[in-house]
C-alpha cells in the first residue's frame, strides 16, 4: 500500500470516528476540575450553546453572592475523537469524582429560571441528568 493510500485510509477512519465536545466544571469547594465529554451531535451542540448563553446571561446579572458561573462552567466546542476521550477517561485522576467523564446520548438543556437553579442543576456533574441514553 502506498503512503498516500495509507494516509487516505487513516483520514477516513478519523472522519468516521465519533467525536465529543467538553463542558468543564471548576469546583472550588472540592478543589477539583471535572471534564464532561458530550457526544458531538447537532442537537447536543445546539443544547450546549443554549446552556452557555444562560451561563453568560446569569453571570452578567450576578449579584456577587454566587460564584461567577462563567468561570465555574466552561465550554470547549473543539471536537475530540472518541479514542482520545476514552484514553483520558482511562488515565484520568479520580477524587470526589473522575476527572474525565464521557456521555453518549441526547442532551436536553432546560430553560433555567435563575442562577441558583442553573448552579443546582449543573453542580458536581449534574449535566449527566440532562442526557438521555
Descriptive notes:
The chain is of the alpha+beta class. The chain is 41% helix and 26% strand. The strands form 2 sheets. Strands 3-1-2-4 form a 4-stranded mixed beta sheet. It has a two-stranded antiparallel sheet with strand order 5-6. Strand 1 (19-27) and strand 2 (32-39) form a beta hairpin.
Counting copies of identical and different chains, the oligomeric state is single chain
Strand content: 25-35%
Please report the distance between the alpha carbons of the first and last residues: 40 Å
Rg, rounded, reads 17 Å
Main sheet summary:
4 strands, mixed
Q: Encode the helix/strand succession as letters.
A: HEEHHEHEEHE
Indicate the structural class: alpha+beta
- Give the fraction of residues assigned to helices: 40-55%
Compute the average pLDDT: 87
Strand order of the largest sheet: 3-1-2-4
Alpha plus pi helix count: 5
Shape category:
globular
Low-pLDDT segments: none
Give the strand tally. 6
Primary descriptors:
four-stranded mixed beta sheet, globular, alpha+beta, 6 strands, two-stranded antiparallel ribbon, 133 residues, single chain, 41% helix
Topology:
Blueprint: H1 3-16, E1 19-27, E2 32-39, H2 42-60, H3 69-72, E3 73-81, H4 82-91, E4 100-103, E5 106-107, H5 115-122, E6 131-132
Brief description of this entry?
By secondary structure, the protein is α+β, with helices and mostly antiparallel strands. It has helices at residues 3-16, 42-60, 69-72, 82-91, 115-122; strands at residues 19-27, 32-39, 73-81, 100-103, 106-107, 131-132. β1 (19-27) and β2 form a beta hairpin.
Amino acid at each position: 500500500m502506498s503512503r498516500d493510500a495509507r494516509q487516505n485510509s487513516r483520514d477516513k477512519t478519523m472522519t468516521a470516528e465519533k467525536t465529543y465536545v467538553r463542558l468543564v466544571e471548576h469546583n472550588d469547594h472540592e478543589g477539583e476540575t471535572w471534564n464532561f465529554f458530550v457526544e458531538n451531535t447537532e442537537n447536543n451542540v445546539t443544547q450546549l450553546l443554549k446552556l452557555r448563553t444562560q451561563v453568560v446571561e446569569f453571570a452578567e446579572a450576578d449579584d456577587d453572592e454566587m460564584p461567577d458561573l462563567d468561570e465555574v462552567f466552561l465550554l470547549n466546542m473543539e471536537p475530540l475523537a472518541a479514542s482520545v476521550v476514552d484514553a483520558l477517561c482511562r488515565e484520568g485522576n479520580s477524587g470526589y469524582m473522575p476527572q474525565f467523564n464521557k456521555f453518549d446520548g441526547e442532551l436536553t438543556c432546560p430553560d433555567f429560571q435563575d442562577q441558583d437553579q442553573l448552579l443546582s442543576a449543573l453542580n458536581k456533574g449534574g449535566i449527566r441528568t440532562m442526557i438521555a441514553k
